[in-house]
Every structure is written in C-alpha cells, then in structure tokens.
Write a structure and sequence with these properties.
Elements lengths: L1 H28 L6 H8 L4 E6 L2 E8 L8 E4 L10 H7 L5 E4 L17 H14 L5 E6 L1 H12 L4 E7 L13 H6 L2 H6 L6 H9 L10 H11 L4 H9 L18 E6 L8 H9 L4 E5 L6 H4 L1 H15 L1
Helix pairs in contact: 3-13, 4-5, 8-9
Amino acid sequence: MSGFRTASTALAWALAALLVAAAVGVALSWAPDLPLSALQARWAPAPSAFIEVGGLKVHYRDEGPRDDPLPIVLLHGTSASLHTWEGWSAALRGTRRVVSFDMPGFGLTGPNPSGDYSDPMYVRFVLGMLDALKLQRVVLGGNSLGGAIAWKTAVAAPDRIAQLVLVDAAGYAFIPQRVPLGFRIAMSPVLSALTGRVLPRSAVEESVRSVYGHPERITPELVDRHIAITRREGNRRALGQRMAQIDRGENAAAIATLNVPTLILWGGQDRLIPPENAARFGRDIKGSVLVVFDDLGHVPQEEDPPRTAAAVQRFLAAQR
C-alpha cells in the first residue's frame, strides 16, 4: 500500500511539474493583440505615413523624387509588410520614386472589416492606392502574394502598368516543400483559435528561417518586427481568413495574356514556391527576363537587397 502511495505521489508531482512548465511557457509566449497606437512609434517612423483608401487607414511610404514619370510600387507577400522592401527603397530612391504599403490584413494597415481577402479585392485595393496617390502609370513589383496581385493588376488594368517585377510570385498551382509554421497554424481553425493570444518567439523565428536561403542572416530585430506586426489588432484572424480564400492557380491561364515588359526574380532555395514556377512565368510571359539567385530563398529582396536591387536597376535601365 505504501508503494502505491509513493507512486501516486510521484505521479502527482510529475503532473504538477508539467502544469507549472506549461504555465511558464504560456506566460513567456503570452502575446495578445495590440492596437495600432502601440506599434506606430517603432514600426512607422518617417517616412511612413497613413492614407484613407477604401475605408482603411493604410500604412505607406513614398520616397524619392516626385517628378519620376514611372514610380516603382512594391507589394509585399503574405504575413509580411512594407518593411520587406526597405533595402530596395534605399537602393532605388536616389533616382526613382519608390512607393510601398501594407496591404489589407497585414502590417500596420490591419484587417479588412468586410473579411474579404480574395485576389480581386487586393487588385481593387492596389488600383485604389494608385488613384489616392495620383499615380497614373507605374512599375509594379511584388513578392509571393504581392507578385500575384501585381500581375493580376496588370491583367485588369494594363494601361496603368508600364513594367512588372515578379519576385518568387504566386500564380500557378504548386506543391511546397516547406510551409512556414505560421501558415500551417493559420490554416487550422483549431490551432489558430488556440494561438490567438499566444505567440512563441521560437515559432515566429522558425517561420522566418523557412523562407531564407541563409537563415544565419536573420537578426533578432527581424524576428521582433514579425512578432510586432503579427500582434497588430486583427492580423491573426485576417491571416486565417486569407488562407481560406487563396487562389491556388485557378487563374494561371491569364499569365500568358500579359503583354508588358517583365523581370522575374527567384530564389533558387525557395522551398515554398518552387523555382520551377519561375521557368513557367518565363515561358508564359513573352520577352520576359528571368534571373535566379541560386543561394537565396523565398524573399530574396529582403535577404540580399543590394544584389537583387541591382538586377532591378539593370532591367529598368534597359527599358529606358
């Protein structure tokens, strides 16, 4: 009998230790949503500004000479923000006007009250931003989701797009080799609900590492930024809604109708959208230029801004 009591006591202590460990883990990972006002000072310093478009208070940056006849407009990918283009903006704004902004559901712009995160909504939003900023004709670039919205905007309004820059762009159906942990959580209603107020730093770091060809380049500040942007009020719920509305290649046939000078940039180590899709874009878009960076991942513009921005500069110079 004493042996039974000893075993029961040991089990009770073990369970208590597990509960304490779980409580500590939750406490360390506790990260409820934050209002825009709590994030603005650090993540939206000058030249950041906000503009009302389609009922949304949109976070954007407009840099470089205002007399540029063809401003460069850059669209970020899923769960990213305009910050992903900071390196390109620094490289280009000396001679070109560069506009970037947080799209609905992401960054500091935050969620779309309607819950619409379809590609057609994003196309309308981009055109609304161009109108709000009085940009009649632009060079439009985008990464991942932003790449898909860029080419779809060119299909919808070809008179507004002078050139395209597609960076590891979505568009075709594909089978990913590796999906960021944050995306996997967002695609599961149960896990998404459980993590609505918890955001382990390790999970965010793993998600970022999965899209880099050189994970050693990831800095603590980069992880801090992703955590902060994720905590922007409404963004976690918006990501789940976006995942349920993804175009999985249903409209890929429209890519071959594009008739606009196009630069296709790709990371050879992209494990989310495979490099084979870069070749498909190259075949379907007549006269396009394809540049592959063998050592970079899904976000080459962020991972190596000088090298990738130089490819953009060469392409734009050739167009002139």
